[in-house]
Amino acid sequence: MALLPIVLVPDAILRQVAKPVETITPELRQLMDDMLETMYDAPGVGLAANQIGRLERVIVLDCADKQSGEEPNPFQMVNPEITWRSAETSKYNEGCLSIPDGTGDVTRPAAIRVTYMDPDGQSHELEADGLLATCIQHEIDHLDGILFTDHLSKLKRDMVLKKAKKIARERQAG
Ligand code: NI
């Protein structure tokens, strides 16, 4: 297992579209384990391949509410695809490991259905609501080069990104 460096704004890879995985190799399985470890370490509730510098359609997440004593509930999804979205929406205050210190209220469909493969190549269909639904949508957005800030007003977006880029520059300067 290894911790992977997390890509920060304004890195161009965050704006690129990841390609479908054709074959799940041992290397990709290892990568997904490393992504999960990196996410827990950050700590965060989700991580997409673009954020660790890869353009394959792979996401990991764990939206269990540990503060309320929920057991860990990790997912590793290959080629996740949303096949249904509820008309009902919900709003969450989202953040992102690639956008340091930035948060904003994002409105998304409250429930979704998603199909994906697990690291063993088994197909799954999952219906999700609550934080899990938000998290899956946020991570799949990453695979399409979309950041949560794209869902904010321009004013709010500019503010969040300006601050995040300043922090990213400071971190990179060491
Ligand atoms: Ni994110």
Q: Which structural traits does this protein have?
A:
174 residues; Peptide Deformylase; 5-stranded antiparallel sheet; two-stranded antiparallel ribbon; binds nickel (II) ion
At the first level of CATH, what is the class? Alpha Beta
Oligomeric state: single chain
**Elements, N to C (H/E):** HEEEEEEEHH
Question: Helix coverage percent of residues?
Answer: 25-40%
The CATH topology is given as Peptide Deformylase
The hetero molecules present are: nickel (II) ion
Structure report:
- This protein has helices at residues 26-41, 130-143, 154-172, and strands spanning 46-48, 58-61, 75-85, 89-96, 99-109, 111-117, 123-129.
- It is an alpha+beta fold and 174 residues long.
- The strands form two sheets. The protein has a five-stranded antiparallel beta sheet with strand order 1-2-3-6-7. Strands 4-5 form a two-stranded antiparallel sheet.
- A hairpin with a 5-residue loop joins β6 and β7.
- It starts with 25 loop residues before the first helix and ends with a helix.
- Nickel (II) ion binds next to α2.
Q: How do you describe this structure in short?
A:
By secondary structure, the protein is an alpha+beta fold.
Summarize the topology.
Elements: H1 26-41, E1 46-48, E2 58-61, E3 75-85, E4 89-96, E5 99-109, E6 111-117, E7 123-129, H2 130-143, H3 154-172
Antiparallel strand pairs: 1-2, 2-3, 3-6, 4-5, 6-7
The chain binds nickel (II) ion (NI).
Nickel (II) ion (NI) is lined by residues 96-98, 138, 142.
